[in-house]
Amino acid sequence: IEAGKKVTLIEGSAHILPMWEPKFSYFAKSVLEDKGIDVIISTFVNEFGYEGEKINKVYVGEGKYVETDFVIMSVGIRPNTGILVSKGAEHLGNGALKVNEKMETSIPDVYAAGDNAAIKNLQTGEYDYFPLGTHSNKGGRAAGSNAAGGNEHFKGAYKTAIIKLFDYTMARTGLNPKAMKAAGIKYKTSLSMAGATPGYYPGQKELITELYFDPDTHDLLGAELFGETGVDKRVDVLATAIFAKLKVTDLPQLDLAYAPPFSPAKDPVVVAGFVTSNILDEKCAQLDIDEFEAYMAQRNREDYNLIDVRTPKEFSRGFIPGAINLQLHDLRTRYTEIDGNKPTILYCQRGLRGYLARLILRQNGIDKIVSIPGGFKLWEMMGKMVEMPIIDQVKVTVGKN
Question: Can you give the pTM of this predicted structure?
C-alpha cells in the first residue's frame, strides 16, 4: 500500500473474517483500524462511479460513497463442476463434488481434488468444503496416485486456518461455537491470556487462547487464538490434539519445547489446559465479557459485587465501570468488606490474580464468585467502556463503545 494512501475495507457481514468468533473478528478489525484502514461492515457495494473508464467511487447505499483510485474486489469462490454435476455426480449445494477417501467421485474412475471437491469433516463425519492449499495438495496426491492404480487415502480435514494482520496473527482449528450451535453439538468454552515468552525475557507478547470442548467427555473440539508471536506453533499443537482426540485435561501433560526465546516454562497451550481443568474441577468459573455485559444490563449495580483485584496504581489507570478496588495483597484482611450474599465478579489484569482471589474468598466463606477471563486487558482490547478515578470531582469515562 502506497504511503499516505487511504484504504477502506467494505464487508457485507456483521464481522470481518466471519469464520472466526465475533470477539476474534473484533480484534482483527481493531488491528486494521489502528493501522489507518477504515472498516465498513454490514454494508454491500451497490454500484461503482466512473470518471471516464476509471472507477472513482464505490457506492454503499443511501447515496453514500467512498472515493477511490482503485478497487480490489473479493467475492469468494464457487466450484466449476457443472459438467460432472450434469452427469449425476453427488455434490454439495455449492457444487463441490463429494469424494471418498481415495478422492473418487460418485462416478466410477472419475477423481476430483482441490477447490472443486467436498471431503469429510473428521469431527462431524459429514461432507464439508475446505478450499485451502493444504487439502488440495494432499487430495491431489491421493487422486493422482489412485487414478494411476495406487491405493492412497486422504481421510478429511477439520477447518484449521491462520491469517496475518500486520504485526498480529489470528488462527483457528476445529469447530467453533457458530458451527456447533448449527449442528446441535453441546460445548463449553474457556479463555486464557498468557505470555508467549517469559515475562523476564525482552519483548514479551500476550497470546489469547479460547478452547471449545465437550462438557461431558472433555474432548477438545476447537480453538481460536490471537497474538503477535507464537500463534502458529500453538494452533498446530491444538490441531494435532484434535486429530489425536485428546481431552482438554490432557493438554498440561504435553511435553512441549521450552527455552525463554520460544516459550515460558508453562506454554500458553499448557496454561489453557490448566485453566480449563480448574473450571472442570470447580476451582474457578468464568463469565465471558459479552455475558458479563448482558448480566450488567439486566441488573442494578447494587445487586452484585464487582471487584478489581489489581494494585491501586493499575486501578488508577482505568477500570471497568462500577468496580471497586480491593487488591489481591490485601484481600485476606479486607474480605469482610464484600457482601457474601451477593454474586461477586472478580477481575485482574489478565486472569491469574482473579483466580487466586477466588480461592481466598472461598476459603473465607464467599462462594458466589465468577471471574472475567482475560481481565481488564481483554476488556480494553474489546473496546469496552473504561472508567477513570474521580479527579477534582470529575469522573472520566472513555472507550470505543
Answer: 0.89
